[in-house]
Design brief:
21% strand; seven-stranded mixed sheet; 13 helices; alpha/beta; single chain
């Protein structure tokens, strides 16, 4: 049960509860909507998001699926083609590799290959990210892979409000939508405005205004970026924090507008640096904002290693607030030129 605050226009709730409310609202609003996946029913979801929904809506609409991602993602695609509005939950992003053929070769391509006759309005949810000591096989951040694929919409809600209000427009979208929920956010809480409406899936969000440097991030790295901005403020550096929210398509207008104001940029991405989403954002800023930039775009990404199990090693491998602060300081206050051989400013993790 969500707690109330002193302000009647808002109430305190968690990211997990907000997502559950969104599912409940969707199930009540449209009888075509159903939830399917591993342990979503009796167990209440691996991360507790669907807890209680089986008792409320029954096994026809909250369907526990066999341990075969290819099978139940394929069934969800088929249901969408038949006019249903399925929400398919894949337990974690690493397991989505077993359904990649269905997602890439069917969900993302059928509308194109049918000449516009076969839309696939399926929503696929999955947990992503590291930081829980689950070692290399269960700590992936592969959103950038999926953002590479035409035909998909890729979303990464980072706030309680987005967790609550992003699902409805995703279900209304005629294209397949992938929603990446960072595991580190489920227990976070915030005030949720009671009159908040659906999220604009095409727009990034400026979470904190600033004038000296733009920090661009998404998902589980947003709290770290905001913490870094607080630290930078104490050092006299005003950081604007932009939450991408939609990873495909990217909202170029918000990104370039912010960089036009601050003239510097740091891109934070929990994915590996090589071939990352951060690389795509950095390239777009260089292409579109070259004459607005007063310094090279900095990137803060995960180390180029399988994510370690040991807590201190895991923390060292992931982007942290201190790394974001250091990158922002480098671009705002570059080291003086001392002559001799030069190279570009070092990205945090050379890989």
């Amino acid at each position: 049960m969500a707690a109330t605050t002193g302000d009647p226009a808002e109430r305190k709730t968690t990211y997990r509860e907000a997502m559950r409310e969104a599912l409940r609202e969707a199930l009540r609003a449209d009888e075509r909507v159903f939830l399917m996946g591993e342990d979503v029913g009796r167990y209440g979801g691996c991360f507790g998001v669907s807890l209680g929904l089986l008792e409320e809506f029954g096994p026809e609409r909250i369907r526990d699926a066999p341990l075969s991602e290819s099978a139940f993602v394929g069934a969800g695609i088929g249901a969408a083609l038949a006019g249903m509005r399925p929400i398919v939950e894949i337990m974690t992003v690493n397991f989505s590799m077993l359904a990649l053929d269905q997602i890439l070769n069917n969900a993302a391509t059928l509308l194109h290959m049918s000449g516009g006759q076969l839309p696939v309005p399926v929503v696929i949810r999955m947990t992503t990210g590291a930081g829980r000591q689950l070692a290399a096989q269960h700590s992936h951040s592969l959103e950038g892979w999926y953002a590479h694929i035409p035909g998909l919409r890729v979303l990464a809600p980072a706030t309680v409000a987005d967790a609550r209000h992003l699902l409805a427009p995703a279900l209304a979208d005629p294209d397949p939508v992938l929603i990446f929920e960072h595991s580190g956010l489920y227990n976070t809480s915030d005030d949720l405005p009671v009159d908040a409406g659906p999220v604009d899936l095409d727009r990034a969000a400026v979470r904190r205004p600033g004038t000296d440097v733009t920090v661009i991030t998404y998902g589980g790295s947003l709290p770290k970026a905001l913490a870094a901005a607080e630290d930078l403020a104490s050092d006299g550096i005003s950081a604007e924090v932009v939450d991408l929210r939609s990873l495909r398509p990217l909202d170029d207008a918000t990104l370039t507008g912010s960089v036009a104001r601050t003239h510097r940029a740091v891109v934070v991405d929990e994915g590996w640096r090589t071939g990352s989403l951060a690389a795509e954002v950095s390239a777009r800023l260089t292409e579109q904002c070259f004459y607005d930039l007063d310094g090279p775009v900095e990137r803060v990404c995960s180390a180029e290693v399988p994510i370690p199990y040991a807590r201190r090693l895991e923390e060292a491998a992931l982007p942290q607030a201190g790394d974001i602060v250091a990158a922002a300081r480098r671009t705002v206050r570059p080291a003086p030129f001392t002559g001799g051989a030069t190279g570009g400013p070092a990205d945090r993790r050379a890989g």
